[in-house]
Design brief:
Blueprint: H1 2-59
């Protein structure tokens, strides 16, 4: 009986450690998913900003930018 109790206690402790390990990985995955989502929002914003800048450059006459003169 004593050996069985030790085995049960050891198995329960192992189960607790496995659950804690799995929970920490799950929390890390959730954090990474949120971080990736934030970065995707930043990338989308920067892409829109670049499009606006390109459009603005194309709308301005070349004489404002002497380095961009047509040869």
């Amino acid at each position: 009986m004593k050996v069985q109790c030790k085995r049960i206690i050891i198995l329960l402790l192992m189960l607790v450690f496995v659950c804690l390990y799995a929970d920490s990985h799950l929390q890390h995955d959730i954090w990474m998913t949120q971080r990736i989502s934030e970065q995707q929002d930043q990338i989308d914003f920067l892409l829109k900003y670049v499009k606006i800048l390109k459009r603005k450059i194309n709308e301005t006459p070349n004489r404002q930018y002497p380095a961009c003169k047509n040869k």
